[in-house]
Design brief:
Layout: H1 2-12, E1 27-34, E2 38-43, E3 46-48, H2 51-67, H3 74-87, E4 90-94, E5 97-108, H4 115-120, H5 122-132, E6 143-150, E7 153-161, E8 168-174, E9 180-188, H6 193-205, E10 208-209
Length: 210
C-alpha cells in the first residue's frame, strides 16, 4: 500500500501548483456539472483557471502572489500552466484572489487507505509527504490523515502545513469507480485548521455523484 502511495505521490504531487489555494468564501448557487459523473457547488467569485485567464491577468496574479510572500515570474506561471494542461484537471480560482483555488482530477484507480493502515503507517506517510513537497526533514505543525465518505464514496484525506504553519494543504482521494479515483486538492495560505476543515466539509456536502 505504501509503495502505491509513493508512486502516485511521486508522479503527481511534485507538480501540484502551490499557488492554487482555497478560499473560505461562501458557496454560490452555481453548479458545475462534470461530464465525468459528478457535480458540486462552485464557491462564490470562482472561475475556471485556463491559459487565457492566466495570460489576461498575469500581472495581477504576480502582484497578488508577491503580496502573499510568494515569488512568481511570468515564466514560472506559464510553465505551471503547461503542466496543468497536461494533467487536465478541473481547476477553479477566485477572481479576487488568485491564491484561492480548488482542483479536481480523475486518476487511474489507486486504492485508498483503511483507518488501520493510516494509524500504522503515519510516520512513514509524513516522511513521504515531506519528501514530495521538497520539505526534507520538515517537522509538520499540522498533519491529519483519516478515512472519509463523501456522498457514499469512500476515501481518505490528508491535511498538513506545506512548509509554513499557516499554509495548509489538503489531498483527498475518493474511490470514484472501478477504474478511477477522484483526487481533490485544496490549499490555503494564512488560515487555521478549523476554518480550512469547515470549508472542505462545505464542498463535500455539495457533491452529487451519478
Amino acid at each position: 500500500m505504501l509503495s502505491d502511495f509513493n508512486k502516485y505521490m511521486k508522479k503527481i504531487f511534485a507538480i501540484i501548483l502551490l499557488f492554487l489555494t482555497l478560499s473560505s468564501s461562501v458557496l454560490a448557487n452555481k453548479i458545475f456539472i462534470s461530464s465525468l459523473g459528478y457535480s458540486f457547488e462552485i464557491p462564490k467569485d470562482y472561475v475556471k483557471y485556463t491559459r487565457s485567464y492566466l495570460e489576461k491577468n498575469i500581472n495581477r496574479i504576480i502582484a497578488q502572489a508577491d503580496e502573499a510572500g510568494f515569488v512568481f515570474t511570468e515564466e514560472l506561471l506559464l510553465n505551471q500552466m503547461s503542466r496543468l494542461e497536461e494533467l487536465n484537471p478541473d481547476t477553479f480560482v477566485n477572481k479576487n484572489n488568485i491564491l484561492d483555488s480548488i482542483s479536481f482530477s480523475l486518476m487511474e484507480k489507486t486504492p485508498t487507505f483503511t483507518e488501520e493502515e493510516l494509524k500504522k503507517d503515519i510516520d512513514k506517510l509524513k516522511k513521504i509527504t515531506a519528501e514530495h513537497n521538497g520539505l526534507g526533514d520538515y517537522e509538520f505543525t499540522t498533519f491529519e490523515i483519516f478515512t472519509i465518505s463523501v456522498d457514499g464514496k469512500k476515501g481518505d484525506r490528508m491535511i498538513f502545513d506545506g512548509g509554513l504553519s499557516s499554509y495548509l494543504m489538503c489531498d483527498t482521494w475518493l474511490e470514484f469507480n472501478n477504474e478511477n479515483s477522484l483526487r481533490i486538492i485544496f490549499v490555503k495560505n494564512n488560515t487555521d485548521f478549523e476554518s480550512f476543515s469547515s470549508f472542505i466539509e462545505e464542498i463535500d456536502n455539495s457533491f452529487n455523484f451519478r
